[in-house]
Amino acid sequence: MKKIFLIFSSAVVMLLLTFSLIQNKDIIAFQNYAGIDVLGQEANKAPIHRDKFNLEMNKFTKENNIVLAQRIVEPNKAGKTEFKYAIFGEGNLPKGLEKASTNTLKFSDITGSYLVVKGQVDPNILKSKFADLGYTAFPAVKTPLIRSLQMLLNATSVLCIFIFLLTFAGLSLIYRIKDLRFAGIRLISGESLAAVTLRPVKSDLTAIGIINLITWFIGLCILLFKKAFYLRTITVLSIGILIYIFVLLCISLILSIVYLFSLKKSTLMSLIKGKLPLKKIISIMLIAQFLSILTVGFTVKQFTGFYSIYQEMNLAKDKWQKASDRFIPNYSMTASATNRKEDDRRNKIEYNLVKDSIENHDALLCQNNLDRYLGQKELDGVKATDYLPEGNTIYVTPNYLSEQNVEISSKLKKRLQNLKPGEFGLLLPEKLKTQESKITKRFINLFNLDLKDTKFSNTSYSAIKGYLSNNQQRFLYNGSSLSNTETQFLKDPIIVVRTPTSTRSTPATNSYWSAALSKEISFKGYDSTIKILKDHKAYQWFSVVTNGNLNYLNSVNKFRTQLISLLIGSLMSVVTSIFMFAMNLLYFEEFRKEIFIKRLSGMTFTEIHFNYLLAQLTVLLVAAIGGFLLTKDLIIIVGTTILFIAMGSMMIYRQIKTEDTVAVTVMKGK
Fold first, then answer.
1. For the range 254-262, what are the long-range contacts, defined as Cβ-Cβ under 8 Å and sequence gap of 24 or more?
2. pTM of the full predicted structure?
3. What is the pLDDT of residue 581?
């Protein structure tokens, strides 16, 4: 049984690591080198022409006998991030780094990450060189292997591996207890105490080593087949598997130390007769049961949470199918300016880009506040469900109303499609009619802040108001790789309608539209999106143009994988718990003579086993309290506790029938 489990768990761990490496192979290859991050142009310095920059860098690399590779992120129609590299110096790119095309180099920005792929150079010398050329740069060290490994494992994977370790501990405990009966015979035959103690560890070492060696080789074959067979990926895979082996062996060794103490405390004759140090064993089993119950409750909670999210995400499938031609540009690392003047210049360019796209190319804004509340229920006293500008509100452009068939009068829709400077649409659910004045004032005050210290400071925003039916689910277009794609709908949000024309161009509104550009504004068509970015000379600030529908489908697939991992983990935790409860039979078996005598003397089952039953109930109660504190879900904890009570009751019922049968048999003189 244990070998079958080791084969299964080792294969799952290998697959988790291997496919994470394949998905992140470009990042893993990038992390293998030290270099420098060039963040932007220094203030008051004229920009250098690309051709002159290339000459300077080639000269610098030859003087220092190094090869530099500049990472360039290239958009593609599949919406995936592709890393290409421009090379400076005499040499070739190492395996795993792909050379950028001439066209890519033509539109690429000088800012970005530069890797030292051959030779060595003082990072400060590199920094000084870029400073001479007019750029701000910071040294970047080679990423430690263990950090690369951490990047590959999400919380679900770690939980699944933890359950595997717990299951292995449970199985090992069972085998150790069974093996105690033969320990006395081995000691009499001449084996030393250390040899008897380490025998199970040697057996585990052999099985774990052979099984993981096979899974490691299979993992290498998968990496080779998927073109991710680099030294860095091989090393990370090997370290991950070695850590798993090490932890398994540590568990085996710890249990063997307990095994050693049991052998020392028990007499040789008692071991030969099959008597066990039951009090210590039962104490260990009760602790294991406690951990098993906690783990089952936690994994079931995680599974149900992920499943409800997965169901909600699937509801958006038809909505995304209709919006499958919408694309979202994502900023690159170099998009941030290094000084206020440059930042304002870029924001103005991007404001004009957004204005042109919304007015002439059907670009669509759909902005929500969900990312404010990631990992927390409220922020600054405001919840995501509160009807406030930073709460249950979405900000959209007029075409959202048509695409999502928002039911308003044709007159109001036409009015919102032609918002004038200083106007915004405010569509409230019917249930908020009584709060209309207060809500309107809040939004006007908020938007007026954007006009402060500008030529529009003496003006004020005005709202074009309307009402919507209650109990409506509004689609959020959460398809950016930066968005919280788990939530695709909001119930009865306030809908605020805005356009670049209605907000006017101020430093604050320029910044607003610039920030929305790479996350909440979707463009029609891949080629037209690229063309708009290039026409407005903003293409070099974006790393990738992603398809919202593909991002959504990738998120659904990711959740499906996590669900499967959690399902496996939940099943394994239940199986482990069953093993732990099944080991309670040792108690009945070891004390069968005492139980039999007490039963004949007229004692009831409860009287005989009172201490045992009390210990079991205490474990269940403490585990239930701990599980509730961990999950905050009463239904799941009650259900889990009932499951274990049912399992315990079945064993008790079986034992009662067994004891009754034995007692009746003796009374009849058979």
1. 255/169, 255/172, 255/173, 255/176, 255/200, 256/176, 256/197, 256/198, 256/200, 256/201, 257/197, 258/176, 258/284, 259/176, 259/179, 259/180, 259/197, 259/200, 260/193, 260/197, 262/180
2. 0.67
3. 67
